[in-house]
Specification:
It is built from 7 helices and 14 strands. It is of the alpha/beta class and 233 residues long. α1 links the parallel β4 and β5. The radius of gyration is 16 Å and the shape is globular.
């Protein structure tokens, strides 16, 4: 796993598949997504490497239920005591015991998904001790007020997080950037691609300057313009 400082208060944690983000407010940290199974100890090590303790992470906000985003949530929550939050429509799958609905793949996505699946650890995620449900428009206590934005399409309960005071947007897998050239694009492996496009358009209208994706390099300046271009694709 790689740890990359994006901004003085924002770090990216990059796993073999997918990535998570750490946001700092004074002595308090927030984790957005938690990587695949086995990531809990890696996240704890990353936090210590930044001179902090795992217990400084007060909350883990999950953008959706897919295993490359929630696999480490239960592990790290057990180690840190952090609260785990997810949208009410994805929360039952985050809690464990219920399989979430599979994506409706386009033909070209099938070999890509097979390669991604090959890289993911096997096993069943440790369920978080509890999951707090959040809703569209709710404001969470970090980043000067982080607004929950419901963006269905990738999953029914996908959310983004917008920090208006900071101009920072966490998109989850609703938006991604290409590993080849950094082009910003709608996410893949979706339940409803038309619904996803509507969600991308909603995010493009927020006016974010920084956009942090679940996959691919973040955009650190002028993100709203790139999101508008992605929404038109």
């Amino acid at each position: 796993m790689y740890v990359i400082e994006l901004l003085p208060r924002l770090h990216l944690l990059r796993f073999p598949v997918g990535q998570a983000y750490l946001w700092q407010d004074g002595e308090e940290l927030t984790l957005v997504d938690a990587g695949p199974i086995g990531s809990g100890a890696l996240i704890a090590d990353a936090v210590r490497g930044l001179g902090r303790a795992p217990e400084d992470v007060r909350r883990i906000v999950l953008t959706h239920f897919h295993e490359d985003h929630v696999g480490g949530a239960g592990e790290f929550a057990a180690a840190s005591g952090a609260e785990v939050l997810a949208h009410r429509l994805d929360a039952p799958f985050v809690r464990g015991g219920l399989p979430g609905p599979p994506p409706r793949f386009e033909a070209w996505e099938l070999p890509v998904h097979a390669e991604v699946s090959r890289l993911l650890p096997e096993g069943t995620p440790l369920p978080p001790p509890s999951v707090t449900e959040v809703a569209d428009g709710e404001v969470l206590g970090f980043g000067g007020g982080a607004t929950v934005v419901h963006v269905p399409g990738h999953t029914d309960g996908s959310i983004a997080l917008f920090l208006p005071a900071e101009g920072v947007l966490f998109t989850g897998d609703t938006v991604a950037s290409s590993p080849a050239d950094g082009t910003v694009m709608p996410g893949v492996f979706n339940l409803d691609r038309d619904q996803l496009r509507d969600s991308v358009r909603r995010l493009a209208g927020l006016g974010a300057d920084v956009a942090c994706f679940g996959h691919g390099a973040p955009v650190l300046r002028g993100a709203s313009a790139e999101l508008r271009e992605a929404a038109a694709k």
